[in-house]
Fold:
Amino acid sequence: MTDEIIIRFLKGNANRDEIHQINKWLQDNPQNIDYLKQLHNSVLLIDIWANTPDKEEQKYIDRILEKTIKPKSNKQTFRTYLGALAAIAATVAILIVLFNANQNHNTENMLLSQEKLWNEYRNSGILLLADGQRIQLDQFENEVILSKDTLWVNHSMYVNKKLNAGKNLICTRQGSLTKIQFSEGTEVYLNTGSILEFPQAFTKSERDVFLDGEAYLSVSKQDGKPFIVNTGTKTVQVLGTCFNVQAYSAKDVFSTVLVEGSVAVSSGKERTLISPEQMYVYYKERKEGKVVNIDPTPYISWKNKEIRFQQQPLKDVAKRITHFYGYDIDFDNPVLSNYELTGTLSLKPDVYKTLNILFSTLPHGDSLTIKDVGMEKLIVK
Structure:
């Protein structure tokens, strides 16, 4: 974390990405809060510094600076930062008190505006541009293509008038999929009930997005310019590869499946590299992660509007259907729910059509009935 970003944050000038970086910086290491305290202590010297102290006083100040601020290059650098901090000393003091009182509470406050925005549009099926335009997405399948200041959304063109002010936000509803193509060639498939925050165009040095949900990414390789997927749990960094990330904030499990290339999954000082046909799984509640060898195909089939399964009980297949459409599916017959299936199920715009296709493969499946009991719950009899 650079001092420049910290100073912008304290002055209230940090953008959303920088606020997210500060948030992770504080969560990753409790010592970072101590560093803010040390900066606060240094601010107490600003008045003396401004009054051009004599040589003895300056030596005393230099000794304190060396103890309280991480050495960057020289004391002149320290004086530059202190000069910037002088205008915001009161803000620093308030922030330190808040951090001491309740770190988690203030972490939430830092991202409060982002969370409010996400909660407002979550599962809405909308694309919110940085300039305030709201574009309604189709119910089942969407395509977004970015090029400079324009976007093509399902064959209709829109002009984004604020390219460098904030980011675009896309929210897919339950039962909907969206493909996003960036101007540098990267493609992102966004799964049902997911949120992606992304710029109109990436900068010369960074390519990063923020994900709450699930996405399959085919990243265009650019030397020295990694593609970074930020989530509320982990950060995934790649150069050029194909991989899947599942990071729903409401779920206890975070996972990354690698198809080809290489991926680094990190959080704080922890960093895990995975190879093709491997999956990294992290259990949030237990704070445990592991790498397992897998066949990626069943984990990424959703991007092709399919569910693939190998000797899975019908009840487990139904859970995957539930995830996509948002309907809870219960079986009145326990024997039926444990019937094992192998195959590929095509996802249709309507949950009833998808279930009827599935039931047509079962013994006596034509006699099954689907009853809607309300509250997005279906019972199969």
In short: Confidence is low (pLDDT under 50) at residues 40-54, 67-82, 84-112. The radius of gyration is 25 Å. The longest strand covers residues 207-218. Residues 332 and 381 are 5 Å apart (CA to CA).
